[in-house]
Amino acid sequence: MSTATVHLLRHGEVHNPDKVLYGRLPEFHLSELGREMADRAAEYFLGQRNNGARIVHLAASPLVRAQETAEPTASALGLEIVTDERILEAKNHFEGLSNVKSHLRKPEHWPYLLNPFRPSWGEPYRDQVERMMAAIRDHRDRALEIGGPGSEAVLVSHQLPIWVTRRAAEGKRLWHDPRNRECTLTSVTSLDFDGESLVAVRYAEPSIDLLANAANIPGA
Predict the structure, then answer these.
(1) Are 36 and 206 in contact (CB under 8 A)?
(2) Preceding amide of 119 cis, omega within 30
(3) Is residue 94 within 8 Å of 121, Cβ to Cβ?
(4) 52-65 tens-digit pLDDT
(5) Which residue ranges form the domains of the chain, and what is each CATH number?
(6) Is the pLDDT of residue 219 over 80?
(7) How far is the C-alpha of 86 from the C-alpha of 106, rounded, in Å?
(8) Dihedral sign, CA of 178, 181, 187, 190?
(9) What secondary structure does DSSP assign to 77-115, as a single string?
């Protein structure tokens, strides 16, 4: 059976001075720090390739912050960016609002807070996992077509879809406390496959030393 790896790379910090939960809104670009994080991710994957990893395929969410995060890796590895809508951010009722906690006291939002396990305020966790895993399998197979057994793909996505996909891969419940997600900016969640079987989940933080100065809004 063919082994393969798919790396899920979260985007870098976004320029967001108003602290908006930006979700799928357009034109939220990387900040200067976010671009440094994207460069750091590219260095990480180039280092992996120099150590023998066959990283042969790159895809990204259509949202601008994901595309901008993918660009340095594309340049470093000589890869084209394939855009895939299946790996974009989750839908969220509170998208576009700043200081979301202050809005939770407003009655018009209460119907969206009834079921935190689904969740009722956005795209169901299970739906996110299904679309992410469909994309992961397709890009895994494309990497294998390009590079043969042992090939690897990088998918640039967003915190919540990556996190619930990891929880599903590890056999954990999908509902969770957003404050406890292990999916920092430009972190890499790696899924190792042996044929169709997912055999390991690994995690790395190429920008760990940059995180202290980064803005990181839960749900964004």
Answers:
(1) no
(2) yes
(3) yes
(4) 999 999 999 999 99
(5) 3-213 (3.40.50.1240)
(6) no
(7) 32
(8) negative
(9) HT-PEEE-GGGSPPPBTTTT-BSHHHHTTSGGGGGGGS-
Structure tokens at 49: 């390739």
Q: What is d(CA 68, CA 5) in angstroms, rounded to the nearest whole number? A: 23
pLDDT of residue 28: 95
Query: What are the Cα distances from residue 166, in Å, to 110, 123, 189, 215?
Result: 29, 17, 8, 23
Task: List the alpha helices (DSSP H) in the chain.
Answer: 32-50, 64-77, 100-103, 125-147, 159-169
- Residue 61's nearest CA partner among 25, 36, 33 is 25
Read off the pLDDT of each residue in 210-219 and give the average, rounded to a whole number: 79
pTM of the model: 0.94
SS3 40: helix
The residue behind tokens 């440094």 is 36
Distance of CA 65 to the CA centre of its chain: 11
* pLDDT tens digits, 109-164: 767 677 888 898 899 999 999 999 999 999 999 999 999 999 999 999 999 999 99
Phi, psi of 129 (to 5 degrees): -65, -40
Measured CA angle at 169 (ends 54, 55), to 5 deg: 10
Nearest residue to 35 via CA among 9, 55, 15, 61: 15
